[in-house]
Amino acid sequence: MIKKVTFIAIILSAFIASSAFAQVKIVPDSRLYQCFSKEYIQEVQLNNPKLLAYYNFYLDNSYFISKTNSTKKMDIPSISNVKYKESDKQFDENIKDFSMKTFNPLKYDFKIEKNVYSHYSLGNGDVIVFYPLKRFMKKYNEYIIELGL
Questions:
Q1: Which of 20, 82, 85, 118 pairs as cysteine with 130 (C-beta 3.0–4.6 A)?
Q2: For residues 77 and 117, is the Cβ–Cβ distance under 8 A?
Q3: What's the pLDDT tens digit per position in 48-77?
């Protein structure tokens, strides 16, 4: 009798654990709607949650802001020369009000290198630095494991 109860408890625990993993729901970041249609985001949310997690993770974790030494002349391309991905329109966000919470790197055609950091001057003494693709993917894969996807 005890073996039967133990067996049922193990099966029930496995079922509950697998249900918990299956119910990981990724909520789309609102900035994704600037780049993708509502229908596409819903489809990805339903059919490819890892891709949705990738987009969300990219928005906040693909870059960082660094201060430059204003006394040194640095040859860093200006962010104002970066074009939108879907048009010839150039970067048009107000640098004075630049915020990592509202910035959407998915909108722009930044050149991200596999093994080298990519730098863009914000023109205010700050530089936006994109992680090398290899390093970013390592961070993303760790994030996916944490999520249980």
A1: 118
A2: no
A3: 999 999 999 999 999 999 987 654 556 889
